[in-house]
Amino acid sequence: MRLFKPLTVLFFLTAACLSAQPDFKAMLREIDELGSFGEEDFSCVYTIVADKPGEEQEITQARMFRRDRTDQFLILILKPEVQKGQGYLQVDENVWFYDPESRKFSHSSLKENIQNSDAKNADLDETSLAEDYDVIAWEEGTLGSFNVYILTLKALNDEVTYPKLRLWIRKDQAIVLKTEDYSLSDRLMRTSYYPKYIQVGAKLLPSQMLIVDELREGERTQITMRDATTAVLPDVVFTKAYLERVNN
Amino acid sequence: MNTWRIAIKNLSRQKKRSFLLGSAIAFGVLIITLINGFTGSFVENVGENFAHIFAGHIFIDGVEKTPTGKTLYIVRNDNELIQAIEDLEIEYSFLTRHSEFSGTLIFEGESVRQSIIGIDWEDEQYFTGRLILKDGSFENMQNPRSVILSDKIADKLKLQVGDRMLVQLRTYTGQQNVGEFTLAAIILDPGLVGSISGYANKTYVNELLNLAPDEYMTLGLYLPSMDDIDPTAEALYRRLAEDVDLFAREGEEDEVNPFMAIMQQIEEEEWEGLRYRLYTLNDMLSEVEQIVVVLNTAGLIILLILFIIIMVGITNTFRMVMFERIREIGTMRALGIQKGGIRRLFLTEALWIGLGGALAGLAAAALVMVILSQIFWGLDSPIFILLKNGYMTFRLSFLQTAANLGLVAVLTLLAAFFPADKAAKLQPAVALRTQK
Known about the structure:
The complex is a heterodimer of chains A (248) and B (436).
Chain A: H1 4-20, H2 24-34, E1 41-51, E2 58-67, E3 72-79, E4 87-91, E5 94-99, E6 104-108, H3 129-132, E7 133-143, E8 146-155, E9 164-170, E10 176-182, E11 188-200, E12 203-213, E13 220-229, H4 240-246
Chain B: H1 2-13, H2 15-54, E1 58-65, E2 71-73, H3 79-87, E3 94-107, E4 110-119, E5 133-136, E6 146-150, H4 151-157, E7 164-170, E8 176-187, E9 198-201, H5 202-209, E10 218-222, H6 229-241, H7 258-268, E11 273-280, H8 281-284, H9 286-324, H10 326-334, H11 339-374, H12 398-424, H13 428-433
Parallel strand pairs in B: 4-9, 6-8
Antiparallel strand pairs in B: 1-2, 1-10, 1-11, 3-4, 3-7, 3-10, 5-8, 6-9, 7-8
Helix pairs in contact in B: 1-11, 2-9, 2-11, 2-12, 9-12, 11-12
């Protein structure tokens, strides 16, 4: 009888905690939807600045065309001059890399790095966190002046790039402020920061990203976005012929 | 018979001139014979050395297409492959089951791409005999996370035996993974045709690739002789086709590189489920064979250029000979020797010089080959991949040598024909009147 009271209190406290746990799956879906353009087309210019110790800073500028409803994108390299005209094109399940010098397409992947940076093609594409990951742990915390949920995600399939992620998500709005990407051996590989978001139509996209390579000390990549628009794009943009023609 | 004897006598009258002409021809033959002899053993030596490096002559990859369209390289169960090998009673020296990945080695801020092959060191002890150790010890491979790297990679990363480095790679399904290697030994990279792989324990490579311990990527057969490669591969392909789905052995007809054609089928063809890809060392060496064709063609061009120069010399020499012997020719014609006899005499002299020079060239080439093949160039020589156990070897084809000799004879006769014809057409009275 003496034990009954504390056990009852513990039971109700646990129940209260469980009922207070937000619906993280819904939160992930909201994040995916905020970054997905659905029926609209999307295009913008990304500037990717890669810093590596002992090497000159590399600046890549690329125009991104996205059509999320058909899972298509085209990344066309604008700068540096030597790589101008190179492009990554997603058609169905395939990502092709085009080299105007050899005038040939070769197989690439969303998991490939863009040029010599730490950014991957997938970093610029829509996310599918709710579909690909399960939340296995969570905690509350702060990041800068924001109160955040810190979620630990585990991949539901073995085809996603990172088997484990940690996300710092604002409590007041489903916006990711920071991510940590882990390898299969559970080693931290990359930390990404998303300090600025901009509204593009009804969507929210990070206009600044900072990706820190955790395996190579001192390597980091900054990505900034400009000229974002949801103007309709012609179908021809998402074809190999367009990549070839744009180089003529 | 008289013509042959007189021709030799005439040649011996101008020993120095005949010797110099013959020497020029001998030099041309020496060069082409050395080139042919070297390229004759080129493919065999490169092939054997590559067979040692790749640990096999015939290879079978397992390739799976997932429902989402991804291509995976994996052999989950090799019962059908082993059954086919047993049914055909294929004699092999070694059978290997390797896993492999291309990853980035990271050490103190430096990184480099490197392919790493996972090897079962207990079952494949012979493999250590194929690698030329420069530092460290193969005994260090008892550490499950050990790796053997080439001197070039070790230099680039400034690695020493015992150093620990990170390796970043993708699992067989494409997920990111990071592992840790300890450098067990440094081996010689023979270079020439790309860099060689690094070698690690298969158990750890499988762990990094997220493969089960008994799974692997490539089955390799090391045959007793390279001559067995093509017939064995054909038989094995036919037998396997009865039980499993296979990629075609031939690529598109217009494909320049047959090996690349086999490799590209995975990307270019529409297929589903599990397929196997069978390829051989000969497929991989098709580029080397192209190098041999280029070398032999270059050799032939050198021979032709040399002989054009020598032909000019022979033509001029025989024109001089004709003027020197003009009264002698007149006398011979006056004594009743026909035009054909004079022409034959000159051509026989040219043929003697040509054949004598060619035989001397062959003898000199044989001597040079014997000397070169006795020299031990070392197992860490930059031309190691072209050598057989550190020694240069030569293999001459009888047909090619006979063709070279025939070419020399024809060109020499052609060069001497015009002066010989001119000598034959001289009027006896005019020839006898000529004052030198």
